[in-house]
Design a protein that fits this description.
Strand order of the largest sheet: 1-2
Largest sheet: 2 strands, antiparallel
Number of strands: 2
Number of helices: 30
Oligomer: single chain
Helix content: over 70%
Structural class: mainly alpha
Shape: globular
Radius of gyration: 26 Å
């Protein structure tokens, strides 16, 4: 059984310890039960929200405690005892809710002591699971929010209110009220974040697992190399393209790094990129996979819930910003290739584009079906189910055509009867995909559940409104300062929370202020928060995707993190464009939309050139300063100043193009003179 892979939780997950064969079988069986349950509820019969979320979380917690033992080594008897207690707690907490759900609803807020006991058990079990699977920081953060809810004159910890700033003060809540909110309310553990994780996110994680099991990952990497490998800096550009493709499968930065980076990073190093540059390019490009439609990790599904917009609309609005991001990373790669005089790969080293499509075009069918059904307005959960069924149908049809029409020998089974071997191979891959999907769902489910703890306490204490007041007070009503505060808050949260949880917390805390106080459109506010939440992948000291890439590149993790941070500058600049030019996303007069898109492209390209000190030829220091001034001007809320900033940046790029051509003529004249 394979080790736990980097998953859709977008977090650094502690590797699972090797497990015994019988335990591996048990985990596989539980994964099959979970996968079967999810497929049934997605495609046949939806369940009550508490039944869906309760059953899903209970099974995920049991699998988590089996896969992640207490301690890092093989379990001793006392380890089994501890893990057995937590497994029993998960089964009791989840089972109590499922069995007594109707009675709990009928009591309508009048809770029994048994309810509170079950809630305490479930909360403690979840905190321990988050510590094991995701890490201690997120567990401490969740516990701190619970303690904050107790701080107040009526709370269990009244003394804690004396050490908090006045603006954070509240009356405090009893232990029973807090546990009831977390366990029995719709804004706690079983709230919206877990609801999304237990439906559409799991279905799409399973969709990605089926695609990967059938070989789609390799197909997209080959397609990227066939398309971009011959260009200068070819492997790095292929890494950018491949990560965009892979984002359509995994929606996870770390999963993209470990999948495509194993191929792209060594080739980038061989071409001449420094190890930290190769790792940084892969990390920045893989981060783009989380903002690239159609899947976008868990973010797009959560955004659809928070904004009330259809998922297909979220995908449509996210496409242009994502393309701008990849264009920026692509340009960084090209500039480095020009500076170093790099060439592309030889045609003999690359797969042919037509041959790649001929051999694997059927991998595009499930993606096409997925996108088409999404555009029809069908529930994303049902669309994911249809896409999975499409994968299975396409795989069986491909085998049948190869076996009975083309008469191609069966793959991977040379010594077994073809039909029996093919059947066993197909069942094995189906089971492997379900197991991979279930295992990959562990971190994202636990992250969303633990984020529910934070969100529940924010709602109970009214901290969201207080945070809006803090943003207004510290920013002085200036939008740019408020956005800087938001970026800093996202970076701080990224120290302890995975991307999905960070987005959920900031969406609850900051979105009301951005919309209500600063008048930013709701979808723009959530896109900005979602983009800023990605910075923990590429921003030191917690650059998770960069650290994973550094391991593959044998590079210094912090240096790789800083390179990834540089290449991923679009994460910070593009949200500013969205805020100051919302027409670029939400629409407006065609001429103005075209103008804003062109402005964004020129500004991003000029900024990349200034940061690298090269565009066509080496940039002089004062030209780089002028680019910075032009960048500031295009964000000024006056069209004339914006036009002036655009003119400054175009002038700088034009001057550099003139210098490049003059240097080329001088080099040509020198060569001619030497030849004469």
């Amino acid at each position: 059984m394979s080790e736990l892979r980097a998953s859709a939780a977008e977090a650094t997950v502690r590797p699972s310890a090797p497990i015994a064969a019988w335990l591996a079988v048990l985990v596989t069986l539980l994964a099959l039960v979970l996968g079967g349950f999810q497929l049934y509820t997605a495609g046949v019969q939806p369940m009550n929200l508490f039944v869906q979320r309760g059953f899903h979380l209970t099974l995920v917690l049991v699998i988590a405690f089996l896969v992640f033992p207490f301690g890092r080594r093989q379990r001793a008897w006392w380890g089994w005892l501890i893990d057995g207690v937590f497994i029993a707690g998960a089964l009791y907490g989840g089972g109590y809710l499922l069995v007594n759900l109707d009675a709990i609803i009928a009591r309508s807020g009048f809770f029994r002591s048994e309810d509170i006991v079950a809630g305490i058990i479930m909360t403690l079990v979840l905190l321990e699971a988050s510590r094991r699977v995701i890490g201690l920081p997120i567990t401490v953060i969740a516990a701190a929010f619970v303690a904050y809810a107790m701080a107040g004159s009526r709370g269990e910890l009244p003394w804690l209110a004396d050490v908090m700033p006045g603006i954070l003060a509240h009356r405090g809540y009893s232990f029973d009220r807090i546990v009831a909110t977390l366990y029995l309310g719709q804004e706690g553990i079983f709230g919206l974040p877990l609801g999304v994780a237990a439906t559409v996110v799991f279905t799409f994680v399973l969709f990605g697992a089926f695609l990967e099991t059938t070989g789609a990952g390799r197909f997209f990497i080959d397609l990227a190399y066939a398309a971009a490998g011959r260009a200068r800096g070819g492997p790095a550009k292929a890494a950018v393209v491949a990560s965009g493709f892979m984002g359509s499968i995994s929606g996870s930065a770390i999963a993209n790094v470990v999948t495509s980076g194993a191929f792209t990073i060594p080739l980038m190093k061989r071409l001449g990129y420094r190890p930290e540059e190769a790792g940084g390019v892969e990390a920045a490009a893989s981060t783009g996979g989380q903002i690239m439609p159609p899947i976008m990790g868990a973010g797009a599904f959560l955004m659809a819930e928070y904004t009330g917009l259809p998922y297909a609309e979220i995908v449509r609005l996210s496409l242009l910003p994502a393309l701008l991001y990849f264009a920026t990373v692509f340009l960084f790669v090209d500039i480095i290739a020009v500076k170093r005089g790099m060439r592309g790969m030889k045609g003999s080293e690359l797969p042919g584009f037509g041959q790649v499509l001929k051999d694997g075009w059927y991998y595009l069918v499930p993606l096409g079906v997925l996108i088409w059904f999404l555009l029809q307005g069908i529930s994303p959960n049902r669309v994911g189910f249809v896409a999975i069924v499409t994968i299975l149908v396409v795989s069986v049809a491909r085998w049948a055509i190869r076996r009975f029409v083309l008469r191609v020998a069966p793959e991977d089974v040379p010594e077994r009867p073809p039909l029996l071997a093919a059947g066993l191979l197909g069942v094995g891959r189906f089971v492997a995909a379900l197991e991979t999907g279930a295992r990959n769902a562990i971190p994202v489910t636990i992250a969303c559940a633990i984020a529910g703890v934070v969100v529940g306490m924010i709602g109970l204490t009214g901290l969201g409104l207080k945070f809006s007041g803090l943003m207004m007070a510290f920013s002085g009503g200036h939008l740019l300062l408020a956005l800087v505060m938001l970026a800093l808050a996202s970076l701080v949260l990224g120290l302890g929370l995975p991307v999905t949880a960070s987005y959920i917390v900031l969406a609850v805390l900051a979105a009301p202020a951005l919309v209500g106080e600063f008048g930013i459109p709701l979808i723009i506010a959530h896109l900005v928060i979602f983009w800023y939440s990605q910075d923990s992948n590429v921003t030191p000291p917690v650059a998770l995707a960069a650290f994973a890439a550094a391991g593959i590149a044998n590079a210094d993790p912090m240096k790789t993190g800083f390179q990834a941070w540089k290449f991923a500058k679009g994460l910070y600049l593009i949200p500013l464009f969205l805020v100051y030019n919302p027409e670029m996303v939400v629409g407006g007069p065609p001429a103005y939309v075209i103008w804003t898109v062109l402005t964004a492209l020129v500004a991003l390209f000029a900024f990349a050139a200034a940061l690298e000190g090269h565009m066509f030829t080496r940039m002089l220091w004062f030209n780089r300063v002028l680019v910075g001034a032009g960048l500031v001007m295009i964000f000024y809320p006056a069209f004339a100043i914006e036009v002036l900033g655009m003119g400054v940046m175009l002038a700088v790029l034009g001057i550099n193009l003139f210098r490049y051509r003059r240097e080329a003529r001088e080099r040509g004249a020198t060569v001619s003179a030497a030849g004469g």
